[in-house]
Prior knowledge:
By secondary structure, the protein is α/β, with parallel strands linked by helices. The chain folds into three domains: 3-67 and 503-541, Urease, subunit C, domain 1 (Roll), CATH 2.30.40; 76-201, Roll (Diaminopimelate Epimerase, Chain A, domain 1); 292-491, Metal-dependent hydrolases (TIM Barrel, Alpha-Beta Barrel), CATH 3.20.20. It is 29% helix and 21% strand. The chain has a six-stranded mixed sheet, with helices on both faces. The chain has a five-stranded mixed sheet with strand order 2-6-24-25-26, covered by helices on one side. Strands 19-20-21-22-23 form a five-stranded parallel sheet. Helix 2 runs parallel beside helix 3 (131-137). The relative contact order is 0.14.
Amino acid sequence: MDKMKYADLIIKGATVFAEKNLPKDYDFVAVKDGRIIKCGKTKELCGYEGPGTQVLQFGKSQLLMPGFNDSHVHLIMAGMYQECLNLETAKSADECGKMAADYAKTIPGQEWVIGWKWYHLYWEDKSLPTAETLDKYIPDRPVFLMNAELHGAWVNSKAMEVCGITKETPDPAYGKFMRDSAGNPTGYLDEMALGIAGKAAFDMPAAEQKRYIRAMQERCNRFGITALTDVEPFFGIGFGNHRALHEMDQAGELTLRIHSAPDLFHDLDEVLADAERYNSDSYRIQHVKQFIDGVATTYTALLIEPYSDNPETKGSTLMDIEKLPGYVEAAHKKGLSVKLHACGDATVRAALDAYEKAIGKYGDTGARHAIEHNEIIHPDDLDRYAKLGVIASVQPEHIAITEDFASNGYTDRLGSERSKLTWPIKSLMDSGAAVCFGSDCPVVSNDPFLEIYRALTRLYDDGLPEGGWNPQEKINIEEALDAYTYGSAYAANREHDIGTLEEGKLADMIVVDRNLFECTPQEVRDAAVMATIFGGKIVYRNF
């Protein structure tokens, strides 16, 4: 063999999962110039291993596979979550206040005190918190604390003063300020209202945004994530800095392939201009994203029929749903893939209707539309995904977002019949729908092994319900890995160069410390990454 063809890197010895429809008996993968040049058997190895080849030797008890691709991440927010205050363990509003005060002392140079993950449903007193509690501990600096679902924020009086939120401030469309009996805002901002304070709290220079991106990137590499889709829109806040990401890309700083999804409601010609300007192997723009509704736990997911435990409401939307088809058609016509947050069965149907109308009007424009979350689907709509080519983007960890099954609000909210089609992953796959996996980090952890465990078992952390919640919707390990690799690559229009281990594709792959195909679900959950290879370079190793 020509010495110029010798591989730069060879990974050998591990069990190889190239993709569910590819051979299962490879012994090694060879890489040159950032791409895979051979997936082969041991007898072929001598033709690729030369004096300058770096060789990583593993055993059959370990697994070599494509890197994970997280199809739904709030990138900068997730990076902030790595560095800012985490209130996940707090058991009361008062404890949150104390934790915020202690954290504030560590950041004397920052105006805003920002925290995450409080959840009043975990507290003994499940009442929504008020500014009064935070004022006791931090009266002189604005405080902005996001709840675990990222659909509500808790602020102190100083924050409301800075943002001009008063008794006279009207509720924004599709959001509200919780108020006391006198009409004064209490400090809890629901849905679109949180964006009013959030715009001030999250106003930061590019250098700070880059720091948060780096923090998240390092975490992703540890988890074997080599690509993700950054969903930018967040209640009127644009959490994306395309120029900053482009600068990081040009400087060779990215160890993730990042696919940005800016706001569907923004100037689409501007999005297309950015998509043309920023279009490399590591950073590109080809999606737009927006919310249609909220979440079922707060009755803000829109249902076809009323909530079982609150028959006075069917939920609500976060936009004028009558305008949805027009927005979708405008993006589809330009070839932009649309990602729509839809948790309730009514909004899932509205999204499918909008996609169907756009496709019928303009035909196939190359766009690959997706519905994000798909928490509740009406049986009549299951087969429509495959027929329309709509991708179901699912985050399995949301199945068990509460600490125990008894705290699961969905069974009460939906009743026994509707709850059978909550997160119907297996039904979607069996219908022929393209399914991709992601995390929705920082709403939940972006640990892929945790997400996969949840999809395999549908168990809560207390081990309940026995056999899993809606066990007919469990999937197997091959289906889960495929959704987290090839499925997400397909959703990002990148299956031609990432998502599988095939000759000619970018060398994004990982080595897991165990053969996941021979593991119990608990062993899958406990798995760890030994090496993460991005474009043929080792960006993380633990061996």
